[in-house]
């Protein structure tokens, strides 16, 4: 065991060593100029004697600076004891402190009325948090930057009320999981809109260390500024920028290993033989295995092969290095952000690697004119097996193999693989070939601004992004031999390459912003108006164009009554000619009750610092569909395949929200509550069947049909305090969402039967992604029970599921299927604990789902792979084998074992299970060293454990994966790349 941990240490340490040695040399070069004879020391506290960590200390007129540690302490090199120190920190007023002599300084910072964390980026402008009336939430980026994320989506799990991210896979190069804000209300892509520095961008491209602020716009009033793109919620991201007067290098590096947490446990070879014989006996077939064969398996003469472990010979490793180099002077500031992320898979082929560079600069061209020029490049690569290039195919094949099947022939020939029905996943790893996917993205973003005066400015935004992709495939010739050494199959030599579809995005925007204090500072107004055009061009000849006009007003009267009003008009080429434009207005009001005179005593005593009541209502849309859906499609024979729809238009959503924000007990306790109602209508279904025309087999069209309502609530609270030298905070959230179809067609009584699935149906009162199947009434006990039951399916045998005849017609068919429930997570909750003591810090984050119904699909439930053909491959799970029906256990959990076709494979309540869970998302322990040498400041060492502990009653493998029903990560229960727990060691430091 010790040897294994030493190996892990070497794997973690060695890749980081070269990176850190490089920066040691850099910091030595940077720090050489700061070698002086005096050391000025001090401590920075707030007005209630709490230390202020991460405060910036700068010697005025120089680039010499330092940061306070967790206890507020600092020391700074100086060549003179007669200097002026500039002290600044988030949430506090900047202070200049003259130093006349070399003694320890005690500096008290006054709280700022509006700190950086109290400014909300709402889209095209920023508003003081106290003047916001709509529903917005911010991710704590300081905490997020301490966690080793492989994908930015992971930061949303258990951190923001109303936002869910259920991770379905850990496959290198995969999406990991989608983000949903306040439920799903569309049949189309439900991902939120992500805006990075004013540009639409994928959240997967982002490194948390490059992000300054992340704001989620949750209701219609906040998201209406994005009109037709806001129905799924909006995520606004601002990346880090440089600061004037201080040259600084921030480094964050971590490495670790992944350990699978959801591996299947299949039966051994002897039990497989018994179960196979058992199923064939029930079905009146000849058995395959003799008692002698079974005894050989028991004795080990026939080896039990765990095929899943055979395809995972390696430990998956992860390595991340990032550096931010920033500084600036009177002309402007800059921030160069570099990142590298590498992950290896569970075998020699799988893996991914990403390089990124972001350069943000602020240039002061003249007294009133400035330019924000940002550049971003990313190179991404991931490797797959040639024959299973979705990343999951290898594991699906491994699940199909039964434990009696051996990997190699028992001969002296090298790599003498046994092909079982032309399948051998180990051979596919070693000799099947490699497919390498590559993508590049480049972005330029220019934002010129002219300040007409201190209150009024005009701003432009021109951005261009291009994404390219390609793949290459390679395989060497290899001969597969039979037991006698004769060739039976040949993998031929292959070298190929192809280019994917490239995408370019061009955006041009013009804005006018006006901010002013009125009535001697008693009122404040924020006004933004602008226009925007966007163009998306693809190399497969697709093109999408958009145009918009928008305006927004925020008005605070006497800092008590707040009004927000937004209006946006959007036009899109995706829709029919007379339906290209939509109008999306919204309004919100709020009352800052804590500023009322009758609450002055509570406010002055610190018992109440914030009490805000909010309400909003608005209309937003969803245009996240493929282009040209409204148009006709004709095949090469002239037959119509899709009927045009000249009424095709946006999905629309009306939403109201009521919220309460409370801070009390001298800001130690904060609480937020929200209730909302989202009514979505004109939903788009692009496979709606229509009566066929002459010469056509089937016809579909894209229509606006159906209505869905999402209602829910969100609660969150946090308590922060100090006991002696221990600072602590405890936070938690609880939220739920109810989804209901109100109309499934043109009339409220219509029923929509989906053409692409038999397990979902729409009618009034059902959930959007419902389970639609058969209700069961136990299992057939014996032959008499089968013969005496008229309502049964053909070829029913004892031990099969007894389905309920809902309409009493004596026949079991589709008319007997009913709504069995919905797959959405309910009663979502999270809890966090943060502790700090001197230089130590400790954090825990837990996230869970209190109620969820999951479908145990495929081989996670069935004893065989149901492939609609042989239904005979694979080995049963041990859990199924222990809980299957037999004549001696008629009240078992699962039906009998079977081979071939079976009436048990239909969706029924037998295969539904409790998928609620509680997961320790993160456990982290850190230690900060104030100074290492003359260059490293506030160096933090930490260890982190991610997703290692889960409590659940789920009878499948991974409860988070259950609800993923689309895309390459779709859950089918027939094998996939395993979900991982990640164990990492990291270093974070600053050089200045």
TrEMBL record:
TonB-dependent receptor plug domain boundaries: 129-234
The UniProt record lists the keyword Mitochondrion: no
Major localization class: membrane
Keywords: Cell outer membrane, Membrane, Transmembrane, Transmembrane beta strand, Transport
Keyword Lipoprotein: no
Pfam families reported in the protein's UniProt record: CarbopepD_reg_2 (PF13715), Plug (PF07715)
Topological category with respect to the lipid bilayer: Multi-pass membrane protein
Subcellular location: Cell outer membrane
Domain of life: Bacteria
Family: Belongs to the TonB-dependent receptor family.
The protein's name: SusC/RagA family TonB-linked outer membrane protein
Protein's organism: Sphingobacterium faecale
């Amino acid at each position: 065991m010790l040897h294994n941990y030493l190996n892990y240490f070497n794997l973690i340490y060695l890749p980081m060593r070269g990176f850190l040695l490089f920066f040691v040399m850099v910091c030595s070069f940077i720090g050489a100029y700061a070698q002086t004879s005096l050391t000025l020391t001090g401590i920075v506290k707030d007005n209630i004697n709490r230390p202020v960590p991460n405060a910036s200390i700068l010697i005025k007129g120089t680039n010499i600076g330092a940061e306070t540690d967790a206890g507020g302490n600092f020391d700074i090199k100086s060549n003179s004891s007669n200097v002026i120190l500039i002290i600044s920190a988030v949430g506090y007023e900047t202070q200049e402190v003259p130093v006349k002599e070399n003694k320890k300084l005690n500096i008290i910072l006054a709280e700022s009325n509006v700190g950086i964390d109290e400014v909300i980026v709402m889209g095209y402008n920023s508003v003081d948090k106290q003047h916001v009336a709509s529903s917005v939430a911010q991710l704590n980026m300081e905490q997020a930057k301490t966690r080793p994320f492989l994908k930015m989506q992971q930061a949303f799990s258990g951190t923001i009320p109303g936002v869910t991210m259920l991770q379905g896979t850990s496959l290198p190069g995969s999406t990991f999981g989608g983000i949903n804000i306040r439920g799903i209300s569309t049949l189309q892509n439900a991902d939120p809109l992500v805006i990075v520095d004013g540009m639409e961008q994928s959240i997967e491209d982002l490194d948390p260390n490059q992000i300054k602020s992340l704001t989620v716009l949750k209701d219609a009033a906040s998201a209406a500024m994005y009109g037709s793109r806001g129905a799924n919620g909006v995520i606004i991201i601002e990346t880090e920028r440089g600061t004037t007067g201080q040259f600084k290098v921030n480094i964050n590096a971590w490495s670790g290993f992944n350990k699978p947490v959801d591996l299947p446990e299949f039966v051994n070879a002897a039990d497989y033989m018994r179960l196979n014989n058992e199923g064939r006996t029930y079905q009146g077939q000849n058995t395959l295995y003799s008692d002698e064969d079974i005894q050989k398996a028991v004795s080990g003469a026939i080896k039990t092969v765990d095929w899943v472990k055979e395809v995972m010979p390696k430990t998956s490793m992860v390595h991340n290095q990032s550096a931010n180099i920033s500084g600036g002077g009177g002309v402007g500031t800059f921030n160069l952000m570099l990142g590298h992320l590498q992950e290896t898979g569970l075998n020699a082929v799988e893996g991914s690697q990403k390089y990124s560079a972001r350069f943000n600069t602020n240039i002061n061209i003249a007294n009133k004119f400035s330019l924000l020029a940002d550049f971003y490049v990313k190179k991404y690569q991931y490797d797959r097996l040639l024959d299973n290039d979705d990343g999951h195919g290898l594991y699906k094949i491994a699940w199909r193999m039964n434990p009696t099947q051996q990997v190699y022939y028992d001969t002296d020939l090298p790599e003498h693989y046994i092909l079982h029905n032309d399948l051998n996943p180990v051979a596919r790893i070693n000799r099947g070939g490699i497919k390498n996917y590559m993508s590049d993205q480049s972005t330029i973003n220019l934002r010129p601004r002219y300040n007409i005066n201190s209150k009024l400015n005009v701003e432009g935004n021109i951005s261009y992004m291009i994404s390219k992709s390609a793949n290459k495939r390679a395989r060497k010739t290899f001969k597969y031999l039979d037991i006698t050494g004769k060739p039976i199959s040949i993998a031929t030599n292959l070298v190929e390459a192809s280019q994917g579809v490239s995408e370019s995005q061009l955006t041009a925007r013009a804005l006018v912003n006006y901010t002013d204090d009125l009535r001697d500072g008693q009122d404040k107004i924020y006004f933004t108006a602008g226009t925007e055009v966007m163009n998306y061009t693809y190399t497969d000849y697709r093109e999408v164009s958009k145009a918009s006009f928008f305006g927004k007003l925020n008005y605070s009267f006497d800092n008590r009554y707040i009004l927000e009003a937004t209006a946006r008009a959007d036009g899109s080429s995706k829709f029919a000619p007379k339906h290209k434009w939509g109008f999306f207005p919204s309004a919100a009001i709020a009352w800052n009750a804590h500023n009322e005179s009758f609450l002055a005593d509570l406010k002055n005593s610190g018992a109440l610092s914030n009490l805000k009541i909010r309400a909003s209502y608005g209309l937003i849309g969803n245009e996240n569909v493929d282009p040209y859906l409204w148009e006709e499609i004709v095949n090469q024979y002239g037959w119509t395949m899709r009927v045009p729809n000249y009424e095709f238009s946006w999905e629309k959503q009306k939403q109201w929200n009521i919220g309460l924000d409370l801070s009390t007990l001298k800001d130690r306790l904060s609480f937020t509550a929200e209730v909302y109602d989202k009514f979505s209508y004109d939903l788009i279904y692009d496979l709606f069947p229509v009566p066929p025309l002459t010469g056509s087999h089937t016809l579909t069209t894209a229509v606006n049909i159906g209505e869905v309502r999402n209602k829910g609530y969100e609660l969150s609270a946090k308590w922060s305090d100090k006991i002696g030298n221990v600072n602590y905070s405890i936070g938690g959230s609880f939220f739920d969402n109810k989804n209901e179809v109100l109309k499934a067609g043109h009339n409220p009584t219509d029923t929509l039967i989906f053409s692409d699935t038999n397990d979902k149906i729409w009618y009034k009162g059902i959930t959007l992604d419902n389970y639609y199947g058969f209700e069961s009434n136990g299992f057939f006990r014996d032959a008499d029970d089968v013969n005496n039951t008229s309502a049964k399916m053909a070829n029913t045998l004892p031990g099969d599921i007894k389905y309920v005849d809902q309409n009493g017609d004596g026949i079991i068919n589709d008319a007997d299927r009913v709504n069995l429930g919905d797959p959405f997570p309910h009663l979502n909750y999270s809890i966090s604990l943060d502790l700090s003591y001197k230089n130590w810090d400790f954090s825990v984050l837990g996230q869970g789902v209190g109620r969820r119904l999951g479908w145990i699909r495929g081989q996670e439930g069935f004893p065989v792979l149901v492939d609609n053909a042989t239904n005979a491959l694979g080995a049963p799970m041990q859990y199924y084998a222990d809980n299957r029906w037999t004549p001696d256990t008629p009240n078992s959990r699962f039906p009998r074992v079977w081979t071939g076709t079976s009436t048990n494979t239909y969706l029924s309540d037998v295969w539904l299970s409790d998928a609620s869970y509680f997961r320790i998302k993160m456990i982290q322990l850190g230690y900060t060293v104030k100074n290492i040498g003359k260059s490293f400041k506030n160096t933090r060492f930490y260890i982190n454990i991610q997703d290692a502990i889960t409590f659940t009653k789920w009878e499948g493998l991974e409860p988070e994966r259950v609800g993923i029903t689309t895309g390459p990560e779709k859950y089918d229960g027939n094998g996939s790349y395993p979900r991982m727990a990640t164990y990492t060691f990291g270093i974070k430091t600053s050089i200045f």
